[in-house]
Specification:
single chain, 199 residues, alpha/beta, Rossmann fold, 5-stranded parallel beta sheet, 9 helices, binds adenosine monophosphate
């Protein structure tokens, strides 16, 4: 049974998913859920926390089975504590699915309503943004240019293909190279258009 409805915010690392996701959630009430944030919230001493650090530190994706297990458990926790009501709430998923296998693993429970793709063809913009974010958020995986390049390679090799798993009518491309305000404006406008359509 597909009882969870979700929008996706999709794009390369540094494309602005977290920033626009938080703003869209604050404006519309959709629940922003970032798997990167969930992973970073794990206790560093725990098995999964250590596993995450070893993969993220090398710019690699965490294996699919562990990712889906942590993601499902987290959502279960939100439902059990009344923080997410599948009967009326929707998620804005940020950072998942990141592989075609993940898209297949979640599809029996999560119904994707629409996908907002933050498109930044020029990777030099991304590298510059991430190096800047490293200083603000103290993220190790943003601080090292070779790790950033590894993350972009993972995105190209494994994540970009995820879009092919969805019907093109579900996808809206947004110019992610614009200012944060402009990216938010275009994403909000696309979201409103989608909400007006019968879901
Ligand atoms: P993010 O904050 O989305 O850039 O994610 C930071 C790191 O968390 C990534 O480089 C991966 O190591 C890991 N990660 C986040 N989401 C996923 C996912 N869906 N599948 C595998 N690894 C993930």
């Amino acid at each position: 049974m597909r009882n969870i409805s979700a929008f996706l915010i999709f794009g390369a690392p540094g494309s602005g998913k977290g920033t626009v996701g938080a703003k869209l959630a604050a404006t519309t009430g959709v629940k922003h859920l970032s798997t990167g944030d969930i992973f970073r919230g794990l206790s560093p001493a725990s098995e999964n926390g250590k596993l995450f650090a070893s993969y993220a530190g090398a710019g690699k994706l965490v294996p699919d089975e562990v990712t889906i297990q942590i993601f499902s458990r987290y959502i279960g926790g939100l439902i059990d504590t009344n923080k997410f009501d599948p009967a009326k709430d929707s998620f804005l998923l940020d950072g998942i699915p990141r592989t075609v296998a993940q898209a297949n693993l979640i599809k029996s429970v999560v119904e994707i309503k629409h996908i907002f793709v933050l498109d930044i063809p020029d990777y030099s913009v991304i590298v510059e943004r991430l190096l800047k974010r490293a200083k603000i958020e103290n993220r190790k995986d943003d601080a090292d240019e070779s790790v950033i390049r590894a993350r972009l390679k993972e995105y190209e090799d494994k994540t970009a293909a995820v879009l092919g798993a969805y019907d093109s009518s579900l996808i809206t491309k947004i110019n992610g190279s614009q200012s944060p305000d402009e990216v938010f404006r275009d994403t909000l406008s696309a979201y409103i258009t989608q909400r007006k359509l019968p879901l």
